[in-house]
Design goal:
Helix content: 40-55%
CATH superfamily of the largest domain: NAD(P)-binding Rossmann-like Domain
Number of strands: 13
Number of domains: 2
Largest sheet: 8 strands, mixed
Shape: elongated
Radius of gyration: 24 Å
Number of helices: 15
CATH architecture of the largest domain: 3-Layer(aba) Sandwich
Strand content: 5-15%
């Protein structure tokens, strides 16, 4: 190990290093807090000036990150944030937690990783460690990130350490916080792997070492492709069960009693979140370089992408049964977040549902107790505020469409006042009056 990396190793073991986190969103901010709780100072980087101002004021913009705790670290000068990327040479360890979206043609969009790499390369110094956490295709660290960083004149694995460790955040899950979720780590060489493992061991309970950055990158994709394929399977079975007059939810409950060989997945209106709708296509794109068609992945993507269209057809059929047209009907969509009890709308199928309803002439309102105003997102621009759930609101609506089954909803109250409900989450099952008013979708 070179003298510079030996010094870094000593600082990590003594927990006297400065951590830099690039991208203070749903991955970067929880990671920052996890290390702050272990008395490690953090300097955050983000291009969003509004986020920087809120953090300096000790205000969290993510629901499950407590503002009072964050404010305490700010007041102790343990945590600060900046939009000045010329300061990237200050931290000893840099975590890259920037978005990796898809282009309009479903190809990997690497612009944020590339821009971050160039910014680091401009000020990179010997003895730093760079770890990519953004989900991406196998080979990104060594094929894309490494050459850009070495434009600094420094050599990866010798002058600076370089590794990959996929984020495994599950927002809103009280059982699995960042600190207790095992961390997969792979470096470009033995020294980088060892340093990265030692670094994560300062704040996390379990570190899982793999042989390469490519193995670590692939492990993240496997996790999310596994979910995508199984969700597609149960979504397809849901459609079949509707035609056959079988309750898919009852079937899942029955199958779940098997103590081995079965894991329950649940249908819904489509996929949401930053990972599952996007990550499989990162591998699909990379596989083309090897002349390998990823049939299961692409088929799962087709099934899941089609689900919002199926849901809208169910809404149309339900209205038609009541001699109403979707054109001119007032539809109240419940739940904008991509999953229950979180304030994260990224890639939520609710956006597609709103778009499809509006295209068919419906007047659309929405309610989400965690998202009072629809934020701007990459694909959609809806200027809408959450509608209060009152008896009059529900009575005046032609159809309630449940997209996200938040725990905060009083489902019996909604059922008592609404005339028609299309339920994509089985949330109204068993409630008084459900048989007359609720249509499964």
């Amino acid at each position: 190990m070179t003298p510079e990396l030996t010094k870094l190793n000593d600082r990590i073991k003594q927990k006297e290093f400065l951590l830099g986190v690039i991208g203070l969103g749903y991955v970067g901010l929880p990671l920052s807090l996890t290390f702050l709780r272990k008395d490690i100072s953090v300097l955050g980087f983000d291009l969003d000036a509004k986020k920087i101002d809120m953090l300096h004021a000790g205000i969290s913009y993510i629901k499950h990150i407590p503002s009072d705790e964050l404010s305490g670290f700010v007041q102790q000068d343990k945590f600060s944030a900046t939009a000045d990327f010329s300061r990237l040479n200050e931290p000893d360890v840099l975590l890259i937690c920037v978005p990796t979206p898809l282009t309009q043609t479903r190809e990997p969009d690497m612009q944020f990783i590339e821009a971050t790499a160039h910014a680091i390369a401009e000020v990179l110094r010997p003895g730093q460690m760079i770890i990519l956490e953004s989900t991406t295709y196998p080979g990104t660290t060594v094929e894309l990130l490494l050459p850009i960083l070495e434009n600094s004149g420094l050599t990866a694995g010798k002058d600076f350490a370089l590794a990959y460790s996929p984020e495994r955040e599950d927002p809103g899950n009280p059982k699995y916080s960042t600190a207790v979720i095992p961390k997969v780590v792979g470096g470009i060489n033995d020294q980088s792997t060892r340093l990265a493992c030692d670094f994560y061991n300062t704040a996390l309970q379990t570190v899982v070492e793999v042989s390469s950055t490519q193995a670590a990158e692939m492990s993240k994709l496997l996790e999310n492709i596994f979910r995508s394929v199984n969700i597609a399977l149960v979504n397809e079975l849901k459609i079949l069960c509707h035609r056959m007059g079988i309750d898919i939810w009852e079937v899942i409950r029955a199958s779940s009693t098997k103590p081995f060989g079965f894991m329950p997945f649940y249908p819904g209106p489509g996929l949401g979140g930053h990972c599952i709708p996007i990550d499989p296509f990162y591998l699909t794109s990379k596989a083309r370089e090897y002349d390998f068609p990823t049939k299961f992945i692409e088929l799962a993507g087709e099934v899941n992408t089609a689900m919002p269209y199926y849901v809208i057809q169910r809404v149309m059929d339900a209205l038609n049964h009541r001699k109403k047209s979707i054109n001119g009907s007032r539809i109240l969509l419940l739940g904008l977040a991509y999953k229950k009890d979180v304030d994260d709308p990224r890639e939520s199928p609710s956006f597609k549902l709103i778009e499809l309803l509006q295209e068919k002439g419906a007047e659309v309102l929405y309610n989400d107790p965690h998202i009072p105003t629809i934020p701007p997102v990459r694909k959609y621009s809806f200027n809408m505020d959450s509608t209060e759930l009152t008896p009059k609101t529900l009575t005046d609506i032609d159809c309630v469409l449940l997209a996200t089954d938040h725990s905060a909803y009083d489902y019996q109250f909604i059922l008592d006042h609404a005339d028609l409900i299309v339920d994509t989450r089985n949330a109204f099952n068993g409630l008084k009056g459900a048989a007359e008013k609720v249509v499964q979708a």
